[in-house]
Amino acid sequence: LMAEKGGYKHFMLKEIFEQPRAVRDTIAGRLREEQGDVYLEDLKLTDEELRGIDRICIIACGTSWHAALVGKFLLEEHCRLPVEVDIASEFRYRNPVVNDRTLMVLISQSGETADTLAAMREGKARGAKNIAICNVVDSSIAREAAGVVYTHAGPEIGVASTKAFVTQLVALYLFTIRLGRALGTMDQAKGRAMIGELVKIPALIEKTLEMNDTVEKVARRYMNARDFLYLGRGICYPIALEGALKLKEISYIHAEGYPAGEMKHGPIALIDENMPVVVLVPKNSTYEKVLSNMEEVIARGGRVIAICSAGDDGVTRKAEETLEVPSDGEELATILLSVPLQLLAYHVAVLKGTDVDQPRNLAKSVTVE
Ligand code: G6P
């Protein structure tokens, strides 16, 4: 079994460390760097058909839903189409407004989640076009969808999704370039620049993974907390949700993700000297705003674990703990910020002695309603 785990103690840790390779595989053979475009072999939608879309609905469950929320930012920013994101079990029962000009994007690691499959069928019955972002080749959703973007992360065994999530973000980024180029909302130079950023990511994940031992020490100091709060803004908000979900799933500590700017409307009441608050504060367009949210937490005695850009002394001076990721970009920083959150959840769970790869009550894929 140790051999199956490649020498790692758990599949989850192995899968976290596989992420540079997984991302390389997601990208492999798909870049058209000269043209500033990407080629998605099983997308099945022509430029003409892509231009007929006036709205996108991204549907998923669990971690895949968090990837969907990141996808909304990417697609709205670069393709200028309205994007709605919904949880599959909500979408399928609410008489959704979709028609033949709607593109539904189903995101599912397993391709077998019952609610996501049903939501896809519901949309199809109303004439919507669809594509799936799946990891498992020939899974039910991949087979039934009109087109597929495979993530090629390789088999994911740990119930808590890690490399599948990160490669879903990459797949969404690739699809954004493809759609933006087809619609003409993204020019060749922009496409090239985005590809240029993407190809740097595997090496940057490798660099980020070097903080593993540091994160373990942080985990040791906070493992006895009863609750955790995770804060992020904009494209980092879904990453905060995902960080909180990872901790809940495997350590059984209650954790909540919140948009940093919304903290004053409720969660701020929870903050005291026992409350660890993980703040995602990379150098991006909302940096100053998040910094002031972080200061509000500190002023109320909260214990801030900041995840920030490398070399950010401003944050380091203020936060109790700082974990630095090697990027100050906006969109792909989401991938690098995810790594310390995965490692934090992992180490807290290991220290608490839970069954990391098979947490109680959870299933890798939920094929019943
Ligand atoms: C289960 C798993 C999660 C996963 C979710 C959606 O709850 O435990 O890790 O995110 O299903 O699964 P899917 O395969 O559709 O991405």
UniProtKB/TrEMBL annotation:
<dbReference type="GO" id="GO:0006047">
    <property type="term" value="P:UDP-N-acetylglucosamine metabolic process"/>
</dbReference>
<dbReference type="GO" id="GO:0005975">
    <property type="term" value="P:carbohydrate metabolic process"/>
</dbReference>
<dbReference type="GO" id="GO:0006487">
    <property type="term" value="P:protein N-linked glycosylation"/>
</dbReference>
<feature type="domain" description="SIS">
    <location>
        <begin position="218"/>
        <end position="359"/>
    </location>
</feature>
<dbReference type="GO" id="GO:0097367">
    <property type="term" value="F:carbohydrate derivative binding"/>
</dbReference>
<keyword id="KW-0677">Repeat</keyword>
<feature type="domain" description="SIS">
    <location>
        <begin position="46"/>
        <end position="185"/>
    </location>
</feature>
<dbReference type="GO" id="GO:0046349">
    <property type="term" value="P:amino sugar biosynthetic process"/>
</dbReference>
<comment type="function">
    <text>Catalyzes the first step in hexosamine metabolism, converting fructose-6P into glucosamine-6P using glutamine as a nitrogen source.</text>
</comment>
<dbReference type="GO" id="GO:0006002">
    <property type="term" value="P:fructose 6-phosphate metabolic process"/>
</dbReference>
<keyword id="KW-0315">Glutamine amidotransferase</keyword>
<comment type="subunit">
    <text>Homodimer.</text>
</comment>
<dbReference type="GO" id="GO:0005829">
    <property type="term" value="C:cytosol"/>
</dbReference>
<keyword id="KW-0808">Transferase</keyword>
<dbReference type="GO" id="GO:0004360">
    <property type="term" value="F:glutamine-fructose-6-phosphate transaminase (isomerizing) activity"/>
</dbReference>
<feature type="active site" description="For Fru-6P isomerization activity">
    <location>
        <position position="364"/>
    </location>
</feature>
<keyword id="KW-0963">Cytoplasm</keyword>
<protein>
    <recommendedName>
        <fullName>Glutamine--fructose-6-phosphate aminotransferase [isomerizing]</fullName>
        <ecNumber>2.6.1.16</ecNumber>
    </recommendedName>
</protein>
<keyword id="KW-0032">Aminotransferase</keyword>
